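Summarise what follows for lecture notes:
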Amino acid sequence: MEIIGYFASLVIGISLGLIGGGGSILTVPVLVYLFGVNPVLATAYSLFIVGASSLVGTIPKYKQGLVNLKTALIFGVPAIAAVFITRKIIVPAIPKEVFSIGDFVVTKSILMMVLFAILMVFASISMIRDKKKIEQEDLVEKQKFNYPMILLEGAVVGLLTGLVGAGGGFLIIPALVIFSKLPMKQAVGTSLLIIAAKSLIGFTGDLSNYTMDWKLLLTITGLAIVGIFIGDAASKKIDGNKLKKGFGWFVLVMGIYIIIKELFFPGGGGH
């Protein structure tokens, strides 16, 4: 299982390099089902892996002038604050047994995995759908900021990231295009920087709450980073849109599988 896990870690990075996102949605299932990590701890590990990988992915985008620092700051500040508070205060405050329906007890671990799977389903739909409407790079508009919406969206994305440990690129990219009027390619680069900052700072909120297996964490992160470079090189030869759709269907199936497994066959996989 661990060998499959290490291979999957490489795939996380490849998907980030190829399509600029989506990889983080695989991190928690890989940690829970292949490495046997507790789901709550897996969301913390995921923040570090996603944050470090995204930071590496940001560097070439920044050199190409595809990172808008002003937008990253405006969107990033509420997201970072929300993620840190969620990891430091909200997640530790969730009780071990959240509620029960008859004989079925919804534990903290089951709740985290189901929340995560619901997010996977939404992410997959955004990957499968055609994004032609928002890819209007020929329309050079003066950048306008819808400040209330950017701040609100930043806080919501931060809360979600904190709860389930996913980067939330599929939420950030459309928000940057719609509310900040960024061209698509710049939105992808800017979203990587926002994901890196909020994930790594969010992870620091966990350091006092859990004992970290640094060897496992750094190995998976290293493989994901290698994957980013492979994906980035391959992206010049492969049609990203077709790939994104295929990956979207895969994530959808995975999300549905996790919901069924957690609700009808709980236990196993790091619980």
Summary: The CA atoms of residues 12 and 26 lie 7 Å apart. The radius of gyration is 18 Å. The chain has ten helices and two strands. The beta strands are 97-101, 104-107.
